[in-house]
Amino acid sequence: MRPPTIRDVAERAGVSKSLVSLVLRGSDQVRPEKREAVLRAARELGYRPNAAARSLSEQRTRTVGVLLNDLRNPWFVDLLDGLNSLLHAHGLHMLLADARLNRRTGQDPADPLLDLRVDGLVVVGTLPDPAALGAVAARMPVVLAGAREPVPPGVDQVAGDDEQGARLVTEHLIGLGHRRIAHLAGYGAVGELRRRSFEATMRAHGLADRAVVENGDMTEEGGYRATVRLLNRPDRPTAVFAVNDITCVGALSAAEELGLRVPQDLSLVGYDNTSISRLRHLWLTTVDNAGHEVGRRAARFLLDRFERPGGEGRPHLAAPTLEIRGTTAPPP
Amino acid sequence: MRPPTIRDVAERAGVSKSLVSLVLRGSDQVRPEKREAVLRAARELGYRPNAAARSLSEQRTRTVGVLLNDLRNPWFVDLLDGLNSLLHAHGLHMLLADARLNRRTGQDPADPLLDLRVDGLVVVGTLPDPAALGAVAARMPVVLAGAREPVPPGVDQVAGDDEQGARLVTEHLIGLGHRRIAHLAGYGAVGELRRRSFEATMRAHGLADRAVVENGDMTEEGGYRATVRLLNRPDRPTAVFAVNDITCVGALSAAEELGLRVPQDLSLVGYDNTSISRLRHLWLTTVDNAGHEVGRRAARFLLDRFERPGGEGRPHLAAPTLEIRGTTAPPP
DNA sequence: GCCCCTCTTTGGACCGTTCCAGAACCTGTC
DNA sequence: GACAGGTTCTGGAACGGTCCAAAGAGGGGC
C-alpha cells in the first residue's frame, strides 16, 4: 500500500530499474517499444518520483527556498511572480517560508529550507539577522530581494531604486507647483534612502528650506499622527510624500479629519503601489517598485550562480515608475 | 567542501555513525561524555542533518504541505498562524505553495509537495479542481481549510460558519432599526451560504419582502457597480451587507459618490475582517472568521489522522464574531 | 576466576533514486 | 564466421541518514 517505486514500475514493464530511470529522465538511448512499456507501467501504477531519494542521489534538489519576511505585507506577490516565471522555465521549484511565523516559535526560519538542502535561497525583505546570511552564502547562492540593507559578501542584491523613486515623487510635486513639501519618513535602509533622496531633490531645486520631515513609523497610525502635527504647523505644507502607502492612508485620514480636501487642498503620495493604493476609494498616487522585474532579476542572479558559483555579490536596482492617481494636484 | 555528514561527525568525535545518530535523536542510552563529544564535534563542524536522507530512511518527512489558493488574498495569514503554532509544537514543519503562481505555469500546484512526500496536506481556500484531492487523500491526511465547497470522501474540512456570520450581520442591522436591507452577493459556496443565510434571517424577522439581493463579483468594482444600481432604486435600502470587505469598499465609494454619508445615511457591513477593513480611513464593520481557530483545528485534524489514519472526513465550523466599527448606525 | 546481566556501542541492511562501467545485443564487413 | 563498432540494457555502488541485531564493556555475586 506504499507508493510505487521505480522497481515496481520496472517489474511491471519487464525491464531493469536502470532503464526505467533512463526513460523517466528522457534519454533517447531507449528503444521506442521499451519506452512505451515503461511509461505505460508508470501511468498504470500512478508512479511519482520520490524527491528525497532523487535529491539524495543527485546532490541537488532543483528547488530554491524563498524566505519571506512577513506574509502580512503582500507587496512581494509580484516579485514572487517574476521569480517563479524564470525559475520554472529552468525546471526549478519554489518553496516558501515565512520568517515571521517561524520566528515566533523561536527557531531560525531558514532552518527547514537549509535542512532540505535547497539549491539556492531568495530572501525577500529585511530579515532580523542579515549577518547570518553570510554563513549560508558560503554554501549556496543567496539573493536578497526587495531590501536595501547592507549585504554580507557573496550575496547578490536586487531591489527597487528608492532614490530614484523618491526623486520621481518629489519632482512630480514640484512640477505641479508645490513648494512647501513634507516627507513622512520611515525607518530602516529603505526609509533612510527615500528621505535622503527627498531632501537632496528639494535641495537641487533650491527648496531646501521648504522641505519638512516628520517621522512616522511606517504604520497607518504613525502616518496619521505625523500628519496631524504637520498640518497644525504655521507653515502648513501643501503636499505630503509618505514613505509608504499605509502611512499615506494614515495621512489621508488626518487630512479628512481636519477638513482638508485631497487633492484640492493637500496632495498626498505613497510608495509601493500596494493593492490598498489601488482601491478606488483611496486611489493614491504612488510609486511602483517594479516587483516583477526585481523577481526576474533575482532569479537571473541565482541561475548565474548555479552555473558559476562564487564571486562577488552583485547589486541591481530596478527602475521604479510613478503611478499618478487621484491624490495629487496643483496646490490651492 | 561539501556539507559535513554524520560520518564526519562520528570520525571527529571518535565514535561510530550509529552513536552519532543516537545522540542526535536524543537517546538516553548514551554515556554523558560520549554525548558531549558528539555534540561538540557536530557544533564544530556546523553539522546539519540532511532532510532528504532522513525522510528517505524514516519514511516520513515531518513536514506538512500548505497549498494556498492565492497569496494576493491574505485573509489566511491568521489561519497559517494557528496552524503553525500547533504543528510546531508537534515537531512538524510547514511548507507553503501558491496554487495561483503554479497554475499559470500549467502544472498541478500540489505536485512539488507530493513529490516531497509531505506527511499531510492542508489546502487553504477554494481550488480549481477539488476532486483531485480525493486521490491525494487516499495516500495522506488532507484537510481543506477556509472553503465551503463539497469535499471528497476522507477529507476533513474546517472553515468559518458563514451562515452564522451572515445571521450576525443581518440581526445587527435589524437590531439597529434597519428594514430595507440589501445584500451584495458573491459566488462560490461561500457566496451562496452567506446569501441564503441573509435571506433566511430576513424571513425569520418577517422582512422577506424588504430584502434585496444584487450580484457583485467579489471585487471592488463589482461592489461599486452593484451599489450604484441599488441606490438608484426607488426603494433605496438603508443598509448594505457585502459578501466581503473588498466589495464593501466598492460600496463605500459608490455611497460617497452619490453624496450619502456612511453610516448616517447608509450602513455598510463587510466580511472577513481583513487588514483593509481595519484601516481607520475605512473602519468597516465586518465579520471576523476566527482564522486562528480554523488553523488550529485544521492542525488538530491532521494530527489525529497521523495517529489513526483513514476514517470519514469530518467537518468543523468555527464560530465567527461581529466586529462593529464605524460603518453601521441606526437608519436616518 | 567465571558467569550472568545490564548498559553502551557498533556494523550492516535498508530507504528510492542516479550514475557508471560493462554486458548483451545488433548490424555490417571482410 | 569472426570481428568491429554502435546501440541498448543492466547490476551494483553511491547518496546520508535510521534502525536492528548483536558485539563489547563493566559490575555484581558466587
Number of beta-strand segments of chain A: 12
* Share of residues in helices of chain A: 40-55%
Domains of chain A, number: 3
Output the CATH topology of the largest domain in chain A: Rossmann fold
Mean pLDDT of chain A: 93
**Chain oligomer state:** homodimer
The largest β sheet of chain A comes out as: 6 strands, parallel
Distance between the termini of chain A: 76 Å
Approximately what portion of the residues of chain A adopt beta-strand conformation? 15-25%
Radius of gyration of chain A: 26 Å
The first-level CATH class of the largest domain in chain A is given as Alpha Beta
According to CATH, the homologous superfamily of the largest domain in chain A is: Response regulator
Largest interface: A-B, 53 and 53 residues
**Order of H and E elements of chain A:** HHHHEHEHHEHEEHEHEHEHEHEHEE
What attributes characterize this protein structure?
homodimer, 332 residues, 434 Repressor (Amino-terminal Domain), Rossmann fold, 3 domains, 6-stranded parallel beta sheet, 16% strand, elongated, DNA-binding, transcription (chains A, B)
Describe this structure as you would to a colleague.
Two copies of one chain form a homodimer. Helices cover 44% and strands 16% of the residues of chain A. By secondary structure, chain A is an alpha/beta fold. Chain A has three domains: 6-49, lambda repressor-like DNA-binding domains (434 Repressor (Amino-terminal Domain)), CATH 1.10.260; 60-160 and 291-318, Response regulator (Rossmann fold, 3-Layer(aba) Sandwich); 162-289, Response regulator (Rossmann fold), CATH 3.40.50. In chain A, strand 1 (63-68), helix 5 (77-89) and strand 2 (93-98) form a beta-alpha-beta unit. The longest helix of chain A is centred in the middle third of the chain and has 17 residues, at 188-204. The termini of chain A are far apart. Chains A and B meet through helix 4, helix 5, strand 2, helix 6 and helix 7 of A and helix 4, helix 5, strand 2, helix 6 and helix 7 of B. Chain A binds a DNA duplex (30 and 30 nucleotides) through helix 2 and helix 4. Chains A, B: Residues 4-58 form the HTH lacI-type domain. Chains A, B: It comes from Streptomyces viridochromogenes (strain DSM 40736 / JCM 4977 / BCRC 1201 / Tue 494).
